[in-house]
Amino acid sequence: MQKFATRRERRAQRRALRATLRRRTNTHRAANKARRTLATGTPQTAKTHLIGRGLDPATAKRFAGAFSRGVQPTATAETAVKLKGRARKTVAVKLYDTATFAARLAAYRPKDATAAAAFARLALEVAA
Predict the structure, then answer these.
(1) Domain ranges, ordered by start, for the chain
(2) CA dist., res. 34 & res. 115, Å (int)
(3) Is 94 strand, coil or helix?
(4) Which has fewest Cβ within 10 Å: 29, 40, 45, 96?
(5) How far apart are CA 68 and CA 4, in angstroms?
(6) What are the Cα distances from residue 10, in Å, to 17, 18, 60?
């Protein structure tokens, strides 16, 4: 175990470790939830498809809008989003079935090299 010079340093280290554990837990829970949702076979959002296939939630949220642009959705639905305070707003969401998602994944590559590599890896996994 590492020795710390001060109590403050130890507390900072423990806080960082707790944050890492929280982040890993949230990522794992999101992935499991997305996999269960995809297993139902019903059309899902692009973000759910991306998380369920192995992309981390932050990257999936970042690229879901661009990923779904220019693709005809299989279905549409309405969901509530939270605004300031207790206010909520109903918005339309695009839903995609597995075949539509796989076709778009085969063609989509973002400009960011790291993200493009992640999408290429996902496309290979889905195609296999």
Answers:
(1) 7-127
(2) 20
(3) strand
(4) 40
(5) 49
(6) 11, 12, 34
